[in-house]
Amino acid sequence: MKTIAMSTPAPTELVMSRTFDAPKALVWAAHTEAEHLRHWWGRGNPLDVTIDFRVGGTWRFVETAGGTDHAFRGEFREITAPDTFTWTFEYEPMAGHVAVETYSFTEEDGKTTVTSTTQFTSQKDRDGMIQSGMEAGAEQSYAALDAYLVKLG
Predict the structure, then answer these.
(1) Among 24, 68, 104, 116, which lies 20 to 30 A Cα-Cα from 9?
(2) Looking at the 3D structure of the chain, how many domains does it have?
(3) Activator of Hsp90 ATPase homologue 1/2-like C-terminal domain location, by residue (predicted)?
């Protein structure tokens, strides 16, 4: 079973890393294109995706789980395809708690490692995110991505 490596190198920072058995171009597309995102993001639950993948463009994902909608949104700040992108991340019911996440993609021997570095505005926000169960949710989403990548492969 694959797992996410998670660390907290600074009081307002969270780093997660996971390797996928797929080439970087495919893993990049899975993270940046609506047609792919709706198959795995949000733990594989039904997902409504709106994404304008360009610097200054916005995104909004609405996951439906257990009869409840969970909406997330943000804006793209930097894009260097297919190596890295940075977006803001906000859970709509907790508006105003905006994190900045940078995703990096590296490939070695046909496997791609995705590393996300999240900067929070406070340690309380970072710790609240960790305590929300986000690691388990991210693990479920990435397991759904594993299964989706096999289908595409």
Answers:
(1) 24
(2) 1
(3) 21-149
